[in-house]
Amino acid sequence: MSRVLVTGGNGYLGAWVIDGLLRGGTDVRAVIRTLDSAALLRDALRRRDTDDTGLELVVADVAGGAGLAQAFAGTQEVYHLASPMQHGGTPEQIVVPARDSALYVLRAARDAGARRVVFTSSFAAVGYSPKPVREYTEDDWMDPATPGLPLYRCPRPWPRGPRGTSWRARGGTWNSSSSTPRSSPARP
User: Fold this and answer.
1) Structural domains of the chain, count
2) What pTM, to 2 d.p., does this model score?
């Protein structure tokens, strides 16, 4: 079985994805910003009684691209869950770094020969849409023209649209998927 790479491994969603992969018997390489956060992630997994012996932690800079080639080496699947987070600012300060980090990850995945990339956005990209019900689907991306919408809550500029076609032209041959964490009302 090939190793799966997870960016944003020390985030809330990343820790749960890693937990599920490890419980399913998959070896995981997680990209984290600094080794200072390694103990926090391992502690969170152990509190859930998850065996973390199949977890490798590597430091790389998703926002700037440094270290991604080495981190992605030998991986066949990528879960890209990391994104620079900043509240307030201009599109150049918020949207451009998010787009660029996604492009760094996609290039590293392509260059490593990954066959699958899963890209997830923040729930904020759908969860604040003016909608009368609380169950969201892939059709509920925020409208960037919504008055007063903080830029961080705008849909991420990269995975929407015909991803496969444009990346095949650049040498990528993987299956791709984009998603956002979603919440559904409790069912009786």
Assistant:
1) 1
2) 0.75
